[in-house]
Every structure is written in structure tokens, then in C-alpha cells.
Amino acid sequence: MTRHVVCRVDELPEGGRRIVDLGGRSIGVFRVDGRYYAVRNVCPHMGAPLCLGTIGGTMLPSEPHTYVYGLENRILRCPWHGYEFDLETGRPPFGTFPLRVRTYPVRVEGEELVVEA
Amino acid sequence: MKAMERAEVRRAGATGVLTVDCDVHPHFKQGLKDLLPYLPSGWRRRLGVGLESSWSGDVYASRFSLPRNVMYINPVGALRRDSYPSDGSIPGSDPAYVREQLLEGAGVDRAILLGGDVFGLGALPDPDLAATVASAYNDWLTERWLEFDDRFRGALVVAPQDPALAAREIDRVAGRPGMVEVMLPLTNVLMGDRHYYPIYEAAERNGLPIGCHVNSVDGVFVKGPQLAGGVFTYYTEWHAALTEVYHANVISLVCQGVFERFPGLKVVIAEGGFAWLPDVLWRLDRNYQALRDEVPWLKRLPSQYVFDHIRFTTQPMPEPARPEHLATLCEVIDAGRTLLFSSDYPHWDFDHPAMALNRLPEAIRDRVRGENAAELFGDRL
What we know:
The structure holds 2 protein chains of 2 kinds. Chain A is mainly beta. Chain A contains no helices and 10 strands. Chain A has one domain: Rieske [2Fe-2S] iron-sulphur domain (Rieske Iron-sulfur Protein, 3-layer Sandwich), CATH 2.102.10.10. Chain A has strands at 3-8, 17-22, 25-32, 35-40, 54-59, 69-77, 84-86, 103-104, 106-109, 112-116. By secondary structure, chain B is an alpha/beta fold. Chain B folds into 2 domains: 2-28 and 71-380, TIM Barrel (Alpha-Beta Barrel), CATH 3.20.20.140; 32-65, no CATH class. In chain B, strands 1-2-3-4-5-6-7-8 form an 8-stranded parallel beta sheet. The interface between A and B is medium-sized, with 21 and 19 residues.
């Protein structure tokens, strides 16, 4: 793992995202609800630029014919096929199928946003 | 063939696994007249099954008959030519001859009886008529077949039009010795629809799987299951396409969450084929990864619900030119859990157990011969 300075903290406002090249890998860095996430910008399904997808919530497991929405701002949906990944784990929510996208630790060091990748 | 049949009987005995035939058809000798003793007098009069003329004259529907395929003519006939009893009556109508030819002759230890004349009940427009015929059939099945030989097992039939009546019929009949399944004739409403839930609830409550079978009326009657794409010209086209109905119903059962709502429910698809199943499983599983939040009540991959809850009978066994293709198919559909042997006796496309089972990979032969059926039907078998 190598320490990379992505940008100054004030360059990634709330709700913002940056797609950066870190050591030859395309990685998306997000700030959502005051938290930072870094995700490999390649969907493990078919190689789509995953980090261009939308961030939102999803339907929670429910009783038949009912809908319960939740996990707002935790789910990244691939722009191609809509596959869902939990920003925290890189896995589909609720363990429904065995794909995983790589996630990386992000931290604030003074004025700088740092990713270990 | 005789020598092989005897060898097969011995082999079944040697492994201790019963040969369970999950699709055998009892037929009426004289159409609905067989049900006369079991029909209330008002309905006898209404149907004119005593052969007195009904009010409607001599041409159009002057005599009632149950819905069945009346459009596509099978050039080899719908019934095995060697299965007519010596008195010339309809194949499958004489329990003694079925015992002789199928149980003794082909080495079948248990025969699950699915009424060969009531597949099409779902196409009837009158729910009360359909329910009345179903009840009469169940009483006929009990007296004429289940009490005749203790190797016969019954699928009680329900009329799908009125699910409350159907549930009541299940409760009325399910406890009879030898009843192992509920046969649900299909309509143009898919099986995942909540219309059927009282029937599923009653089946689950009574510990019986729901069985469905090619309905004979598929694509023929408006209220029966419809075939995709359009209307065929020839029997061979129609027959090849009948499995479409089960693509649709498997998808519907899974996606509507029927197995989440009724976790104890099992479904048996008889004569609906299974070589189409990989495509349905793969499409459903792929869709699930993208579209899960439309059906968030599905907690697992759709294929897992199929493997846990749905069983498929073998006849007509696929006959690919290269046997390894059948082996691969069996692997994809987890046939060691999902397949049940069936012969379809006495219909024209009958599969002999020795011939059909020997086409399967040896490792799953006994599973298909009877072990899967034993797990499905439990003590009732």
C-alpha cells in the first residue's frame, strides 16, 4: 500500500466525487454524509467505470409485495447494469451474490485527503 | 425387452431404491359417465352425463365434455397402442391392467396418478362446475384406484377458478391414504399470482406438494395457459412448445416471492420438460444482480429457490445426440435434487424406466429413480 495525496480537503465538498489515477489504477473518491470512500473504478462484473454510477439507497429485504427503502447514501450503482455495491464493504448489499469491488482506506491529514492504495 | 425389464426390477430391488413413477395417467372408461356415482343429482342433470339429451340440441356442445386439446391431431395417437386392455377399453382405464403392464411389467414400485381427463379443468369458465368435477374425480380416484392397489398414489385435483373452494377440497381429501400431491390445472393466470395463495396455504398446511402438468388445453382454450408467440399449425409444433408454459410459471413463482410466503411449499412440474431450465435460471440470476430492488423480498439468488422448492419430472427425457450433453444439463440444474422419474404411462410418448434412467449419469440415477421422490413425499410415499 502506498500513501497518495488525492487533493486538498476543501477540493472535495459534501456530495462530491473525484476520479483519480493512483499508481496506474483509476479510483473514485467520494464524500457522502461527511464520510469519505475510495473505490476502484472498475466494476467487477463487466469492467464498467463503476465510480461514474449513482449513489443512493436501496430496497431492504422485505416481506413479499412490500417495499422498505434504506441504506441511503451507502449504495453505489454501476452506470452500466445497475449492480449495487455497498460503499463500506465493496460487496453487494445483503450478500446476495459473490462479486466484490476493491475499496481503500481514506483519511484526512491536516489539509490533505489521503488514500492508501 | 422382457429380459431387460426383469433385470431392471432386480436391480431396483438390489439397491433398495424404489422406482417411483411421478406421472401416470388414469383415464375414464366412458368419459364423464365414470363420475356419475360421485356427482350430485343436480349436476348430473345439468351436465347430461347420463346420456339423456340436454336442452341445447344436437350440434353445438349438446353433450358436455371436459376441456382438452381438440385442435392438434397426433398422427400416432395420444395413447400407447399396446396399452389397450383386452376388453378394448381406453388405456389407463383398467387398474388391473395398469398394475400388470406398468407396475409388474416395467418394474414401477409406486405410481403417482395424475388424472388424464382432468388436466384441462382450469379452462372451464364455470368455477362451480370445475369444482364439482374435481370433487367427483377425487372420490373416483380414491375408490377405483387408491383402494385397488397399495402401490398407487394419488394427486387430488382442484379447480383453480375459485381458490376458496379448492382449499376446502384439499382439506376434505388430503388425509386419505395414498394421497400425496395436489394437482393444480393451470389457467391463463400465472402461478405466482396471489389468486392461488389460498390453495398454496392449504397444500402447505396439509403437507402436500402442488403438482402441475401440461394441461392439454394450452394455447387451445382462452382460459387455459396461453403459448407465446402465436398459434401453431401442427401437433408436433404445439407439443414441442408446451414447455413454454413452465418457463413462465417458474419465473412467476420465484419472482412473486411465493416461496418466501410459503416456505414449506414444494411444486412439481410434470411433463413440462427441464432442458429449458438453465436459460431461465441464468437469466433470473443475472437479472437479480441488477434488478433485485424491484423484488427485494427475494433474499437469495432466484436459482436457489428453484433448487429448493421445484421438482421436474423426466419424461419426455431429452435425447441429445451426445450423452455428455445430458450429463452437463443435469449438472447445471442440480438434477441430483431436482429431477423425478416419470413414464407418462399410458401416453404415446411413454418413457420406460430402464431406458430413461440409464441415459442419466450413474451418480444420480437412484436419486432420480426414487430418492428425490422419497424426500419430497416423505411417509406418504
